[in-house]
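Example for tutorial group B:
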C-alpha cells in the first residue's frame, strides 16, 4: 500500500501533467509540496525503483500505469470527500480542501464507494474538478481555458478554480463570483496582463495571478 508521502507525490505529478500538459520537474514538485529539491530527487528515485514513475533527469517525471492508478484513487477520495463535506455537512467550499487532504489518506475503498453512492455518483467536486470513477476513468469535461487566455468581448462561464488557496476562494465568495457565473471579458491590458470582466452587473479588474487560477469555458451565442 502506498504511504501518505508517496500518494502526495504521485497526486502532485498527475495534477501537474493534467494542468500544464507537460511532465512535472523535480523543482516544480518541490515547490508545490514545499520540500527541498534533494528530497524530491530522493523520492523520485524510490518511486522509479518501485515502478510507479518514469524519471529521467531534465525530462521530468511521468507516472507509469501503476503510479497513475494510485494517483487517481487518491484524487477520487479527495474530491468525493470535498463534495460530501459541502453537500452533507454544509461546510463552505473555501474550507473543505484541507480537511479532504487529511481524509484522503485514511479512507477505505468501501467507505468512499458508499460516499460516491450517497452523492449520486457525481462527476465534479465543489471547485469544478472532475471526480475519477471507481474504474479509473475520468468524466468527460468541456474544453476549459484559463481566464488569462480568454479573448476580449467574448462570453464565458466560470467552471473551475484552484482549490488549494482558501484566501483566493474567500475573495471570490466576497465578490460573489461563484462557479457557473457567466462573464464577459471587457478588456485585457498587455502591460500587466490584467483582465477586466463584467458579471452580475458588476465590473472587476483581475490581476495576472488571479486569472491563472480561474478556468472558464466559452459560451455559445
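The residue assignment follows.
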Amino acid at each position: 500500500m502506498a504511504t501518505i508521502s508517496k500518494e502526495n507525490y504521485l497526486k502532485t505529478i498527475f495534477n501537474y501533467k493534467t494542468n500544464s500538459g507537460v511532465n512535472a520537474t523535480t523543482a516544480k514538485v518541490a515547490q508545490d509540496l514545499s520540500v527541498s529539491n534533494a528530497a524530491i530527487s530522493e523520492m523520485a528515485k524510490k518511486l522509479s525503483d518501485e515502478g510507479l514513475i518514469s524519471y529521467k533527469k531534465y525530462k521530468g517525471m511521468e507516472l507509469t500505469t501503476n503510479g497513475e492508478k494510485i494517483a487517481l484513487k487518491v484524487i477520487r477520495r479527495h474530491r468525493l470527500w470535498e463534495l460530501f463535506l459541502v453537500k452533507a455537512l454544509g461546510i463552505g467550499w473555501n474550507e473543505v480542501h484541507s480537511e479532504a487532504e487529511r481524509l484522503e489518506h485514511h479512507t477505505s475503498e468501501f467507505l468512499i464507494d458508499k460516499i460516491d453512492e450517497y452523492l449520486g455518483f457525481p462527476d465534479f467536486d465543489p471547485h469544478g474538478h472532475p471526480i475519477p470513477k471507481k474504474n479509473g476513468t475520468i468524466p468527460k469535461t468541456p474544453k476549459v481555458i484559463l481566464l488569462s487566455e480568454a479573448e476580449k468581448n467574448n462570453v464565458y462561464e466560470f467552471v473551475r478554480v484552484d482549490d488549494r488557496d482558501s484566501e483566493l476562494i474567500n475573495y471570490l465568495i466576497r465578490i460573489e463570483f461563484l462557479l457557473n457565473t457567466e462573464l464577459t471579458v471587457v478588456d485585457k491590458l498587455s502591460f500587466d496582463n490584467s483582465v477586466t470582466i463584467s458579471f452580475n452587473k458588476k465590473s472587476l479588474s483581475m490581476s495576472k495571478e488571479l486569472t491563472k487560477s480561474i478556468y472558464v469555458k466559452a459560451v455559445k451565442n
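The chain has eight helices and eight strands. Compare this with the pattern of hydrophobic and polar residues in the output above.
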